[in-house]
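Thought: the user wants the 3D structure for the chain below. I'll pass the sequence to the structure tool as-is, report back what it returns, then summarize two notable features.
Action: structure_tool
Action Input:
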Amino acid sequence: MADRLRDLIRHLLEGCEDGRLRLLVEPEPAVAAEGSGSEYDVAITRAIAAARAGKPQMRPGERARVEWGLGLLRTRPGGVHGLTDEEAEALRGAPMVEVLAQLSFEERYRDPEKMVHLALLAKLAAENLDAQDYDPQVIADHQARAWAELGNAHRVHDELCQAIAAMATAEERLRRGTGNLFLLARVADLRASLLNTQRQIPDACELLDGVSQLYRKLGDGHLAGRALVSQGIYTDYDGDPAWALRLLREGLSLLDRERDPQLVTSTTENLLELMVRCGEFREAARALMESGLRQILAGQPLNLFKLRWVEGQILLGLGKLHRAETAFREARAGFLEHNQGYNAALAGLDLAAVWLEQGKTSQAKELAEDMLATFRKLGIQREALRAMDCLKRACEQESATPDLARQVGRFLRQLEREPQLRFGAV
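Observation:
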């Protein structure tokens, strides 16, 4: 374990120039007890003990104020701007930083603009912490936390330059801090998300591997699972769905639904999609039945249509063509109703593949023409038009196959992540 942890720290903390962090937890001069391992092990053990002690440090009662503030602001329509003077005073200092940072992260699936706004407020609160109330290293920790969340918010909002600058500031503040390993892992986790956005996927996966190991060492299985889930998603982006599936399964097994129900739900959806692409159709059908996703997603029509689409792929894999056709029709209609033209096209390609399996070439041709017209109307990039036009012409010549429809679908999915791709090169 000592060797693995040593590798972990090195992966996490090698310097900002190549997109990683520098070593923050310096080994303390120590003489290891006989049989207890190296001095390095003793130093790491002490660092972990310090992290478990609760740094970044909060004064007595502040953690309870954080929980109170989160409960208050999650339900108040005006949010932080609706706080009374007394409520704002109760949250003053480190609790306000933590509340705003957590609320910002919770908006990642809902409102990226609000996510940035809350992160900016967290950064402002952190930068205004009073040196008379907190140790300078503790202030640096809170500032690192806020700047990292701001960098992540900018990333989600597609503001890459701002994200890079904010993350660099977070890492600089982190080097001034207490050496808290939980904070270190959090910043590294968010850095990995930025690396993925920058298409540096192997570096992101390597970093997340270290993050998950560190969280395990710190005794937080849920956060270790979250890192594994991210690593699995990025591994899929990098073209290894089988390994990605293993990572997602392991990550999901560690997640705590009470702590982050949204993450458990989205991970389950990703897992089902990967099972389909890896050909595990029976296992996917069983997992879908046991997941309760239909009930969980009730009232979320767009997500239900996405689930129906996956269900159609499962049915197709099981050879139930007529039921798969119905599922794809419903999913496509739902996407069109919610102005999701690209997803409608992808579901339409699955429907076209079913029709081609059934010998319904004229229907597939009509659908391909309709999807091509939609792409032109939406101003979709040239390579996507080229791929769709290839399918349409093949239908016209009665040479289209289900495999061609699936190839076009795979290309369009990959094109979303890699816009430089050319059709025929995947």
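Final Answer: Structure generated. The domain at 291-417 is CATH 1.25.40 (Serine Threonine Protein Phosphatase 5, Tetratricopeptide repeat). The longest helix spans residues 136-156.
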